Amino acid sequence: MAADERPLTTWDGLPVADEPPYGATAVVFRREGDGIEILLLHRSENGPDYEGDWAWTPPSGARQPEEAIDACARRELWEEAGLAAALQPVADGPESWRVYVAEVGGNARVQLHDPEHDRFIWTDPEHAVRVCLPDVVREGLSLAIRHIGAAADRR
Questions:
Q1: Are 132 and 40 in contact (CB under 8 A)?
Q2: Greater confidence, 5 or 25?
Q3: Is residue 154 within a helix (H) or strand (E), and if so which, with residue range?
Q4: N or C terminus of the chain: which is more exposed, having fewer CB within 10 Å?
Q5: Which residue, 82, 101, 95, is CA-closest to 41?
Q6: Distance separating alpha carbons of residues 64 and 61, to the nearest angstrom
Q7: In the beta sheet, which residues pair with residue 92?
């Protein structure tokens, strides 16, 4: 597939919207001491030890045709992590792929609902940015982390 082409279906064969925004990322965080921890999911496709491109990501996925982008973000968060949380859109994100943030309590229970992911971690923002590859994933995560920090500064 050429670099400018997008898949017509998701990994499990569902149709993908053919106009932007093409999907959504939900960066979930919880407060831990004086800092925050970010939820990352490990994709199972290349095995449990794989650490390269697309190995670790926040919950995210493609928008289905006619699906509202907010509904897409909620659906992906539920399907991939078993979480229902208030999502806040991040301003200044790309129009082609929306980024949201969601704060959960320390007792939030993550449940991997589908075979796309084999495990998850809660980690500090610096580590999260370091392991999220390629750059397109890292950039969306970094944007969300800056948004979280700016919101904390306004308190």
A1: yes
A2: 25
A3: none
A4: C
A5: 82
A6: 9
A7: none
